[in-house]
Fold:
Amino acid sequence: MRVAMIGSGYVGLVSGACFADFGHVVTCIDKDIGKIDRLNRGEIPIYEPGLDRLVEDNKTAGRLFFKEDASEAVRDADAVFIAVGTPSRRGDGYADLSYVYAAAEEIAQLMQGFTVVVTKSTVPVGTGDEIEAIIRRVRPDADFAVVSNPEFLREGAAISDFKRPDRVVIGTSDPRAEEVMRELYRPLSLNEAPLMFTSRRTSELIKYAANAFLAMKITFINEIADLCERLDADVQQVARGIGLDNRIGSKFLNAGPGYGGSCFPKDTLALVRTAQSAGAPLRLIETTVAVNDARKRAMATRVSAAFGADGLPGSLAGKTIGVLGLAFKPNTDDMRDAPSLDIVPALQAMGATVRAFDPEAHEARQLLPDVQFTASPYEAVEGADAVVIITEWDQFRALDLERVKGLMKSPTLIDLRNIYKTDAMARLGFRYFSIGRAPC
Structure:
């Protein structure tokens, strides 16, 4: 089948490359000519493990193309996917749908014959209705169907998530559109991935509900971690004890500095605003958003407490703090709503000098001024009064801790991801602070 992907950002690029790998002919379209030029030169604008090879293989096979002009691709397409950004709108937190609606107008002007217009972007309930209205207004004669097909891709594991999904949600009541969508995803039948067909509005809500639930689960274990610290309990054992219950499950029960990234912050806020507008406020999600925002801001106080007495904040004036990890999670370069964007400026405001290392988050250099960026984790910790682990990259799990201790001015480590064992750190002579566990 022939596919046009409007938007070549994270979702559009990964989805387009995976559809091409299924054997479809895919053209990814973007208004950013610089991005298109880079993609045509084989340069991948985001870090996602395995994506560079997937793109190159399908370009070479003649199944994947990158263009600025959408005309030919949309005209010939069986399905046109809208995969543009839906950031939080400034001032009110609603999803900004201007890019989605602009894409709908462009598609309406270009499509020929029966075309399935698929919303891959995360959009509030009812957006598909508005897309349909836009197309009918621009092209009253058009033969088309609007489908909701939300993405459930985890950054760092997106290719695997696309090819081996838990489910594929497709919102449509049009039998012709259903046939097209079944053919697009037919290669997944080998993995017995369930295709779940629903109404369009239900499909749109499933995406938001899923992300909100996961965000709530993260926030729940973070609050349990705070309680563990007061009661001399171990949050990791608590998480394992409840996660072994099949009704709960172990995923997203890792205590830390709070969630960030491209999805959870904006999607929870957008769902809150949608629910308020509908007169059915979601108090649990409202609280989740507030608790998570406060948690990220409070993390710097945990660092200062390592220099105080009786758990009270101490002074960071004149201290050098080594920071390991800046991206919101490992295996991505994404800095959107990363906890580091709250933690690092707060440390600086307390008077600390920050030296930081992240293997992929190069955008941090523009987002975090006055930080000394280093080429390795060992450079970041050299001469530091304390080291803070913010992102749990695998290479940080395998540090030469004797070397780290020898390089530091003071062997104090604040581990916001609980990647080390407290007894092992005590044996090595570290002052070690983590989340939801007793310090040593």
Notes: The mean pLDDT is 96. The two ends are 60 Å apart (CA to CA).
